[in-house]
Amino acid sequence: MIKKFFFIIFSFIFLIPNSFGEEKMQLKKQNWTFEGVFGRYDDVSLQRGLQIYQEICSACHGMKRLRFRELKDLGFTEDQIKKYAETFEILDGPNELGEMFMRPGEPSDTFASPFKNKEEAKASFNGSYPPDLSLLTKAIKNGPDYIYSLLTGYEDPPKDFELTDGLYYNPYDDGKVIAMPQPLYDDAIEYIDGTNASLHQLSYDIVNFLNWAAEPELEKRKSMGVKVILFLIVLTALLYVTMKETWSRIEK
Amino acid sequence: MIQINKRKKIKSTKDRRNFLKLTTTSMAAVGSAFAIWPFIDSMNPAADVLALGSKEFDLSNVEEGSSKTVKWRGKPVFIKHRTKKEINDARKVDLSKLKDPEKDEDRVIKPEWLIVVGVCSHLGCIPLGQKSSDTKGDFDGWFCPCHGSHYDSSGRVRKGPAPKNLLIPKYKFINENKIKIG
Amino acid sequence: MVKKFKNKTLAWLDYRLPIFSILREALVDHPTPRNLNYWWNFGSLAGIILVIMIVSGLLLSMHYVAKADLAFDSVEHIMRDVNYGWLIRYIHSVGASMFFLIVYIHIARGLYYGSYKSPREVLWWLGIIIFLLMIATAFLGYTLPWGQMSFWGATVITNLFSAVPLIGDNIVTWLLGGFSIDNPTLNRFYSLHFLIPFIIVGVVFLHIVSLHKVGSNNPIGIDLTLKQEKIPFHPYYTIKDFFGFGVFFIIFSIFIFFLPNSLGHPNNYIPADPLVTPEHIVPEWYFLPFYAILRAIPFKLLGVLAMLGSILILFVLPWLDTCKVRSCRFRPVYKQFYWIFIFNFIVLGWVGSKVPEGHYLIISRICTTYYFVHFLIILPILGMFEKTLPVPLNIFRTSKVKKN
What we know:
The structure holds 3 protein chains of 3 kinds.
Chain A (H helix, E strand, L loop, with lengths): L1 H14 L27 H13 L22 H9 L2 E4 L8 E4 L13 H7 L11 H4 L3 H9 L16 E2 L7 E2 L20 H16 L3 H30 L5
Antiparallel strand pairs in A: 1-2, 3-4
Chain B lengths: L1 H40 L5 H5 L3 E4 L8 E6 L2 E7 L2 H9 L11 H4 L5 E5 L22 E5 L4 E4 L4 E3 L11 E5 L2 E4 L1
Antiparallel strand pairs in B: 1-9, 2-3, 3-4, 5-6, 6-7, 8-9
Chain C lengths: L7 H9 L2 H11 L1 E3 L8 H20 L9 H10 L4 H29 L7 H23 L4 H12 L8 H9 L6 H32 L15 E3 H26 L29 H9 L3 H13 L4 H4 L11 H21 L5 H28 L19
Antiparallel strand pairs in C: 1-2
């Protein structure tokens, strides 16, 4: 009986979640600090990731669900966040004359999109839309490993491969081509904290940042999970003993 | 001897049972309380509402003698740049004549800036007096058109059904030209 | 036999509205077979998860906005800004999967121990009605986040109604409130998603009333006539149910806190785009077996009928299974077919997530055929020809028999 019970649970846990979509290329699996039962974010890496986002990615990609005030998770103070927000121009209005106007950003504002709307973005890139990055790591299967593989996966196309203008070869993407030119290179930016900005480091840091942007609650969720499950194990053990004690009254 | 042993055994079984019941029940009760809390807390103001709970306002474009209305926590706030005359008039008032006695000095941080929540303490209408064309009532402050309450240049009620003075929100000066309310 | 309440206030109230004596009869005194095993925990588990879904859903509804251009953002607002919003959202989304897992095991118990046989036919029917209402609720609820899978899953399933001859297209337009899935659809799906769980509560109430009228089945499937064969529900089964809750909450928590998105589809984190169809449109895992049956049959109307039929056939199960013996413990031949049926159902679920082409299509057709063969051919024939083991007269004689 128990064997069959576990068979059902086993097939449930392992069969069903893996049955969505096929794997095309073997992904380059990385050791992410946020993975696993005790997963946490590396604040320093997140700060570097923010720098990469701002200096490279924000030219085309929005991050519209992230608010400046949430950067306190990265270790910034309220003052630092206020000053950082003020470097951005935010569209606001209408004022008393009915006009829209630009004003310096405040901590409660979100990162703006570089384009007014999706249509403007598509028009600038021949119909391709650079997706908003706020939820990207959750919107793709094995998001972090996939994005890392994609960013480090650009290579020259094989000889007999016909590459259309405006597209670039990347074996990790659908159809092996992608409209985004390689965004990260060795030393593409100079890290403020002086870390060596290799392609691996840049890709690693930006993926960390993107995962945090998609799942800011991760640390709280996992630490709460450990406490809850430990508590439940103790309580369930107590319930089991109480149950046995209660049933022992029935002799037969 | 055997009889006493049997009774002891029964009693210790009963004790064990009671102990188990007590421990299990209290642990389950504590667990339930912790489990219910997130559901209750989710009804408290969310992070974006709390973030807008305090706001900064620029005073540099409010000229002396004029008053600006801003929105804070969904309510109007009157930022009045008072003239020397308005300040003196407010300080000369005999406190015993006030329905809600308050010294003007206690209602401001810097005397030339009066910050009040623009909601009448009677039944919640927004008093007139912000625009230069508005009537300021009999006491050179604000006049509530709904039921005829008059407020003075310190926002204190002087005539009419309002029971309390206009509320002073919690605020502080960030620098010469900026205040943070809330 | 009505016990009097010692507390005077309770007695006064109970005389005028006998809610306390009804509760006491149902939850405390109710004579329950003493040999129930852990497969009998899944009814109360289903009850507690229903309560959890309603409470979490209610709290989500305080922040959710059912407007096409705001729905996705409102869910993200819950995840990021609302205190513990992420927790309540994950409880609700994981809870839906848990609800179906529990109910599938609950149904499997019924199939194994013959709980659908006389005199429990109506009890069984009420259960199927609850299952159908759950399916409706889950489908409606999945649309609400307005992700890509929400939108396209809803498009596919509502389009099925166009299979109805003559008036099919009119039905689809009526359901949608428009010409495609859009605001009117979202609004009415929200309103129905809010309502149906309370209908489920009503049917669950009837389900329990019916159960208490005929009494619980038991692992050896015999009618219990001796007084000693039954024990009061409290404290024996209350504590056993609480233990079951404990085990369940541990599994539930593992998913909520560490694997919250593992049972869902990543595509639903992309806002709905009517101009972009996702690569594979797949429903949530608990619908996959029926999705497989639907797509196994090449003709639209037949596919829809087969999908519906696969559930509706359960209503006539008490008459399809002609064997007089209830429990699989004493039906060694049927027991083998039972496990083959379960395995077949799981394979149907697996193939439902694949594209219906090539060998996947062949497998889905074999499994769909087998599904109906099990009910329409195997069960009736087994009933007539199976050599069952001797059924004991009472519980106590089986204590020496090895447990399955």
